[in-house]
Amino acid sequence: SPIPVGIDVQVESIDSISEVNMDFTMTLYLRHYWKDERLSFPSRNNQSRTFDSRLVKKIWVPDVFFVHSKRSFIHDTTMENIMLRVYPDGNILYSVRVTVTALCSMDFSRFPLDTQNCSLELESYAYNENDLMLYWKNGNDSLRTDEIVLSQFFIEHFHASSGLAFYSSTGVKIGMGFRIH
């Protein structure tokens, strides 16, 4: 059966929205949750163990990528912003702080009364729905934002979505979107 991988996202900032380039740049904390019993360990006090990016290179982690991304990077000041927490029962939390610039097709035919919908979709790169199942770990509460203020736009709301991806080699996608005007 497919490995269930829960996702939650904390949006730190929307760094820019470009009407000219039809894209947006967002910094976020992307957290993955799954279980790998091979990594379980005995513990008298049920304490987790936390590791940095060195262990991530030695174990299986989900190969999630941002669909329609133009650029992205994991922050690395002063160290790579990657954290892996392993619990005694084999449950895993894998967290990365990433900035991504993604496509946002905008329609200005109703300017200045237009609204734009931008989204950021996540998929597994190599696995389909028979291998890996992405889902929002806490439903709509899986997408969190602090109050984000933009100089040129007003953000109406953020929302989470999920569905099947028929246009790629993968089967399941999840996404988040926001509406601006």
TrEMBL record:
Q: Does the keyword Transport apply?
A: yes
Presence of the UniProt keyword Transport in the record? yes
Chief localization? membrane
What positions does the domain Neurotransmitter-gated ion-channel ligand-binding occupy?
Answer: 2-163
Domain of life, per lineage: Eukaryota
Q: Where in the cell is it found?
A: Membrane
One Pfam family assigned to this protein is: Neur_chan_LBD
Question: Which keywords does this chain's UniProt record carry?
Answer: Ion channel, Ion transport, Membrane, Receptor, Transport
- What's the protein's topology in the membrane? Multi-pass membrane protein
Tell me which family the UniProt entry assigns to this protein. Answer: Belongs to the ligand-gated ion channel (TC 1.A.9) family.
Mind telling me what this protein is named?
Gamma-aminobutyric acid receptor subunit rho-3
Organism of derivation: Xenotaenia resolanae
User: What's the gene?
Assistant: GABRR3
